[in-house]
Amino acid sequence: MQQLTRAEEEIMQKLWELKEARVRDVLEIMPEPKPAYNTVSTIIRILERKGVVGHQIEGKGYIYHPILKEEEFKKQSIKHLITDYFEGSFHKMASFFAKEEDLNKEEIEELLTHLKENKKRK
To answer: Phi and psi for 82 in degrees, rounded to 5?
Structure first.
């Protein structure tokens, strides 16, 4: 998967939320200050070229939909984060965030429970 820019990620978030949308639909749910219509349209076309967004023709316009699943994007982004910033070590990343976020006892126990459940499934 190609890396997405921050602007592309923001548009993808809106498309995942809407499931399918015209450019104006995406623009309506963007936070203020809203980008220009042409900016959103251009970013969506870039996302299409990257193969993460598709479209159907409806009337004189297009309805866009995400091809890339949100969960797949998250998985690839986390792998990229671990590889590039934590020497490929999930342990180093988890330790970093546990220290930085100052997790309380309940949060740590919840994280350990999830890790143990995941280990049992494998």
So the answer is: -65, -45
Q: Which CATH architecture has domain 70-121?
A: Orthogonal Bundle (1.10)
Ordered mean pLDDT values, 10 residues apiece, the chain (122 residues): 89 97 97 96 97 96 97 92 90 82 82 82 72
Q: Where are the domains of the chain?
A: 6-66, 70-121
Query: The whole model's pTM is what?
Result: 0.79
Q: Which residues lie closer than 8 Å to 115 by C-beta, 6 or more apart?
A: none
Distances (CA, A) of 13 to 34, 65, 69, 74, 86: 15, 11, 11, 11, 26
Query: Which residues are 21's β-sheet partners?
Result: 64
CATH class of 6-66: mainly alpha
Do residues 99 and 43 make contact, with C-beta atoms less than 8 angstroms apart?
Answer: no
> What per-residue confidence (pLDDT) applies to 1?
64
